[in-house]
Amino acid sequence: MTVISAEDKKPRWGKLLTLVGYAATFGSAVPVGYCIGVINSPASYVKAWCAQSLLERYDANITPSGLDLLWASIVSIFLVGGAVGSLGGAWAANKFGRKGCFLISGFLFAIGAIMFFFCRMANSVEMLILGRLLVGLASGLTTAALPMYLTEIAPLAWVGTLGVFCAVGVTGGVVVGQVFSLRDVFGTAELWHYAMSFYIVIICICYLPSYMFPESPKYLYIVKGDREGARRELTRLRGADAVDMINHEIEEMEIEANAKVQTRSFGSVLKDPALLLPLIIVCCFQGGQQLSGINAIFYYSVSIFEKAGLSTTDAEWANLGAGCLNLATSFLGPVLMARVNRRPLMMFSSSICAAFLFAIAFVLYYIEAASWFPIVCIVCIMGYIFFYQFGLGPIPYFIGTELFEVAPRSVAMSMGSLSSWACNFIIGMAFPSLQNAWGAFVFLPFSVTCALLFVLTKFYVPETRGRDPSEVAPLVSKGFKSKVK
C-alpha cells in the first residue's frame, strides 16, 4: 500500500477541478432550477397565449377547466421528463460516461430553450410542451449523474463539498428563474418566451470549455477498465507532482475493481440484500426532501405574506426574498460538508424543520386569533428555509455517492433521483387539492416526514464523511439489523 506524504494528504483545488466544478454546476444544475422557478410568474400570460393559439390554429375555443388541465399538463410534463431522465441516468452514466451525461443534458437543455423561444413565433403549443419535456429529461439526467461526476473527480476530503454543488446550483437556478420572470424583466405578455429561454446564455458560456473536462477516473478504471486513461485524468486533476496521492487512489480503485463486477444492473441491485438499506436511505432522503414541503412552502408563501398585510406585488417580492434566503443559506453547504459530519447535520436540520412546519400549521390555523400571528408565521417560514439548507437541502443529493461503491452507484443515484422527481410530481399535483380540503393542517404531513427522516438517520444512517464507500458499505450490508453507530 502506498504511503501518502503529509504534503499529498492536503486537499488540492487545482485549476481544472475548480473549472469543472463551477462550469458543470452553472451549466447543468442552474438550468434545472431555472426551469422550475421561471414558470410561475408568467403563468397567466402563457395560458392566455395557449388559448389564443388553439383558437387560431384549430378553431378550438377551450373552456376554462380545459385550459387549467392544459396548463397542469405543461407544468407536470417537466416532472414526468425528470422522472424518465433520472430512471435512464444509470444506463446513460455507464454507457456514455459521467462527462457524456453532462454533455447530453446540455444538448437537451439547449434544444428545449430553442423550442421555448420559437414556440410563440410558430404559434405552437406543441413546441412549448415538447420543450418542457426535453428540459425535464435533461434535469432528471443532471440530478442523477452530476453529483456522481463531481464526487468521483474530487479528492476524498472534498467529496462532500463538491457533492453539494448540484443542490446549490438548483437552488440558485430557481432564484434566477424567478428574477427573469418578474414583470419588470421578461415576465410580460410580449416577453415571456424570452424568460423561459434565457438560460441558454448560461449553457453557451459554461459548455464552451467542456472539451477540457476530464472523464471520471473511477468510471474509466472500474467500469471501462481503462487503467491508463484513469491515471491520465487523475494526473490532470491532482497535478503531476502528486504521485503518491495518484498511486494511492489507483490502488483503491484496483481493490474495488477486483472485489466487484464492473457494472450492476437494476435487477441485481434491487435483489441484493446487502444493498437494500442504503438504497432505502437514498430513496427516502431524496423523496423525503420533496415531501418535507419546501416547494409547498414557496407555493403558499405569497398568500401568507398577503395575510401579513403586504400587497400582492410586495408579497411576490417577499417570496423572491425567501428564495434569495434559500440560496444564500445554501452557500453554507460546501463549508458545512467539509467540516461537519453528515449524521448530526441531517438530524439537526430535519428535527428543526419538523418543529417549524408544525408551528406553521398551528399559527396558520389560528391566524386571525392575534394581530402578530402573521408575523410569527413569516418568521417560521424563513426559519424553515434557513435550517432546511443545513441538511435536508444538500445531503440527499450526494449521500448515494458515499454509501455505494462505483459498481452499483449509478443505479442507486438513478433510483434516488426517480424518487425525488416522483415525490415532486405528487406535491405539485396533490398539494392544491389537499390545501383546499385540509387548510392549515396540510403542513402536518410535511412535519411528520421530517420527523421520520430524523428517526431513519439516527438509527440506520452511518457517518460517511471522510470515509471511502468501501468502508461504509459493510456498515449497512445487514439491512435493518445493521449497527451503524
The shape is globular
Radius of gyration: 23 Å
Low-confidence region ranges: 1-10
CATH level-two architecture of the largest domain: Up-down Bundle
Mind sketching the topology for me?
Blueprint: H1 6-9, H2 15-37, H3 43-58, H4 64-87, H5 89-95, H6 97-122, H7 125-153, H8 159-163, H9 165-180, H10 192-197, H11 200-207, H12 217-223, H13 227-238, H14 243-259, H15 266-271, H16 276-291, H17 294-307, H18 312-330, H19 332-339, H20 342-365, H21 373-388, H22 395-403, H23 406-438, H24 444-460, H25 469-472
Family: Belongs to the major facilitator superfamily. Sugar transporter (TC 2.A.1.1) family.
Main location: membrane
InterPro entries: GLUT, MFS_dom, MFS_sugar_transport-like, MFS_trans_sf, Sugar/inositol_transpt
Could you please describe the fold and organization of this structure?
It is a single chain. The chain has helices spanning 6-9, 15-37, 43-58, 64-87, 89-95, 97-122, 125-153, 159-163, 165-180, 192-197, 200-207, 217-223, 227-238, 243-259, 266-271, 276-291, 294-307, 312-330, 332-339, 342-365, 373-388, 395-403, 406-438, 444-460, 469-472. The protein is mostly helical and 485 residues long. The longest helix is centred in the C-terminal third of the chain and has 33 residues, at 406-438. The radius of gyration is 23 Å and the shape is globular. 52% of the residues are buried. The model is unreliable at 1-10 (pLDDT under 50). Residues 21-465 form the Major facilitator superfamily (MFS) profile domain. GO terms for molecular function: fructose transmembrane transporter activity. Its main location: membrane. It is a multi-pass membrane protein.
